[in-house]
Structure formats: C-alpha cells, structure tokens
Amino acid sequence: MSESFLIPETQKGIIYHEVNGPLIYGDISVPKPKPNEILVNVKYSGVCHSDLHIWKGDWPASPKLPLVGGHEGAGIVVAKGSLVNNFEIGDYAGIKWLNGSCLGCEYCQLGYEINCAKSVISGVTHDGTFQQYATADALQAAHIPKGTDLAKVAPILCAGVTVYRALKTADLRPGQWVAIPGAGGGLGTCAIQYAKAMGLRVLAIDGGDEKRKTCIELGAEVYIDFLKEKNVVDKVIESTEGGPHGVLNVSVSELAITQSVSYIRPLGKIVLVGMPPNAVLRVPVFDQVVKSFEIKGTSVGNRLDTREAIDFFTRGLIKMPINIVPLSQVSKVFDLMIEGKISGRYVVDTSN
C-alpha cells in the first residue's frame, strides 16, 4: 500500500524577482507536478557557487524571473504525474542541476544530456530547491536509497556528480597525480575524496590553514597554500616529480586556471569545471604542441554518473563536510562565498 502525504497550498521559499535583486524569504505557492514530473518535499538543499553566479547575473544565462534558486535538493516524493512509473510515493529522490532533457537528440543519446538544446535547469529555467516542495522530470531525478542522510547526500547531487564526471573525463590511472586548485571548497572537498576512492594521488591547492587541515584530513597527500607559496607552479612540479597527470580546475580564480597550463605534465589532461565570470584561458601554442597536453571542459554528469556518484557516497567512501543553516539564511551563505570564507559545503534545512 503506497504512502500518502498532506500537501499544503503554500510553502516557505527563497525567491527573487530580478537579477541581483533582493532575496525574499516568505510564502510561495506549492508547484503541481506535470504528467512527467515528481513533486519532492525537499528536506535539505546544498548551496552551490553556481546559485550565486545565476543570482548575480555573472554568466551569459537568462534565468526565468521570478526565480527560486537551488539545484541540490534531497527529499521525499509526495506526489507524481500520471506518466511517472519509476518513482513511488514515499521514495527518496534528488533534484539536480539538470532537471530535464529531451532524451532523443544526439547529445542525450551519447550521455551528454546537459548539452541538450531542450535541457531544463533547476534554479535557472525551472524553479529550484530553495523551497520546501519542488518538481523535477522523473527520468532525470536521482534515486536515493531509503535511510540515506539527506543533508549529507544533497551536495552529491551537484558537487559530487560534477567532480566525479570531471575525474572520469580526465581518464587517469590509479597511482597517477591529480592537482585540484580550489580543493578546500565545496567542489574541491568532494573531488579529493572521489579521486582517492578512484586510486589517484591528490595534490590540493588552496589558501589558509583551515583549508589545509580539511584537505589533508580528506586524503590529499600534498597541500600547497597559494597565500604563502612564492612560486606555486614550481612547487607543484617539484611535489609531483614532473607535474600532475591531471588537473581538476574547480577554482573560480582565472590565475589558478592559467597556472595549471604551466605545471601540467606532458601528455596530461586539464579539466575545466569552475567558471570565473568573464575568465579567459590563454595557452602558449608551442607549449601545448610540445607537451601534448589536453584541455577539456565538463559540466554536470548524466544519469549514469549520478547513480555511480551516489553509490560511492552510500558505500561510505565520500563524507561530505557540511554546515547546516536555515533556509532563510541563503543570502548569508552567498555573502560568505563572495568573501571567500566557504570551507566544505553549506546546506540549508528547509524546515526553518
């Protein structure tokens, strides 16, 4: 016998009516799922740097307005559309950055669903997870095993999936070095753990003693503090005996991304994940030809990546360092991001 839930007409949420406008915490309507959608009672939502960029208008994206941001929501399915047959009421589900896609175009069929021209993005073109109830296409929503800690799994739905996909894109072998600029942030702390679980050696780059402690505890062999190190490039090459085999650029620093071109090992792979506003990567053609390294960009993962990334978490291989704050405090988390004071991942509790 399936469960049933009493669904209210209104809920608490964070909404803004213009880019970089006031973030308003208050009562908004509960959305109704379309035939292909599930309605999730969001218990927790991670706060991603992308949410900040969309709100500020940093990227060439056109969000729907008014907009509820957020795209790392974990909760319980409380209603579903008439066409949904892969979720049941009461199941645990996750709402991701990629809320929906056509599943029929060449990109979807190749597993690059995020490149679909008809993609629907949570917290950009579709109201996201900074609310107590949110909808998602059932075919793109993530299945979460019952009993999972919903607060800790929430960031896996973006941060975890994103870095896991990036590591797969880097195509490194166990025992090889991967450098992670921005290792102490939300994406970076995930990346360290996934890299270790995949058998890689991790060199973490970030600033400050608190982030050093976090990175080393999570499994980084080497930590380079860019605030103290006079020549980051030389130190990276020295520490990895010739440069890392791969680089996961999760930093939002244009300088950090540019430096990776100088310290990458010949035949290495640089994967771009972080997107500093208006950043440009300049690469000496001579160096790229002679060293024969690759530069790739990658966004969030597909449905398979999501399932695998969650599996790493549920097997206890990934332990998210999180700070839980009330939903009403999203703007304060954004302030910490702007000030560069985020260590780990902030998660909002939608119940207050």
Automatic annotation (TrEMBL):
GO terms for molecular function: alcohol dehydrogenase (NAD+) activity; zinc ion binding. Gene3D superfamilies: Medium-chain alcohol dehydrogenases, catalytic domain, NAD(P)-binding Rossmann-like Domain. The keyword RNA-binding does not apply. One of its GO terms (cellular component) is cytoplasm. Its cofactor is Zn(2+). Residues 21-348 form the Enoyl reductase (ER) domain. InterPro entries: ADH-like_C (IPR013149), ADH-like_N (IPR013154), ADH_Zn_CS (IPR002328), ER (IPR020843), GroES-like_sf (IPR011032), NAD(P)-bd_dom_sf (IPR036291). Keywords: Metal-binding, NAD, Oxidoreductase, Zinc. Its EC number is 1.1.1.1. It is an enzyme of class 1 (oxidoreductase). Belongs to the zinc-containing alcohol dehydrogenase family. This is alcohol dehydrogenase. It comes from Candida boidinii (Yeast). The lineage of its organism: Eukaryota, Fungi, Dikarya, Ascomycota, Saccharomycotina.
